[in-house]
What does this fold into?
Amino acid sequence: MGENKLPLVFITGASSGIGQALAARYAAAGWRLALVARRAAEIEAWAAAQGLGADRVQVYRADVRDTAEIIAAARDCIARQGLPDVVIANAGISVGVDTAEFEDLEVMRATWETNNLGMAATFHPFIAPMRERGQASGHGGTLVGIASVAAIRGLPGHAAYCASKAAVVSYCESLRGELRPFGVRVVTLLPGYVDTPLTRENRYPMPFLMPAGDFAEQAFQTIDQGVSYRVIPWQMGVVAKLLRLLPDALFDRLLEGRPRKHRRGG
It folds into this structure.
């Protein structure tokens, strides 16, 4: 482990979608991978199909909602592969909610536990050693939070997801200020619509829909450059900011009748 000079990236939610696309992009760049998901067997099958051996990929089974489980996986990664150069907290869920429905309160809890507490628990084990490395070398590493363009304005039927992703933006901004003096970067990425199994269930138009591989390429470059905040693709950033500027009355009329995000079991 100590002799392997290839950089290391730690990615949660790596069994499909954006997480898998990011894993493929980092693998193509010659990085070592520490990949985390609840469905570890799917990651192992993917790695085998890519011809990536144990010297390049280690797989860790963890559910980010289980704080002890994801912290244990992170510590196992440090022990087996070393301290990562980049940590990407990608694991997340997106389910529509109706606050009038009692069972959806548990959906909201699960969303925030996954998208927010799960992100903090993912970062937690790496922060102290990254700060130490940053003080010694000037660059401790990079923590990447995957938010969403949905963070910019609340969408009907999507309250839990929009709220959780808005919290990701604020959380990462706070963390960036805390860690900057120690040479640790914090990058916030806001994907627009990316073609993944998650978005294929959507029942509404998805402007500027992009392949997961294209998103991963732009994300890889953004992380490498240490850009603090970026919407990908940029066109969705423009749309979202224009929506942010709309008066509430006009915004509400614009979204009236828009199909909502599907609820669990709906």
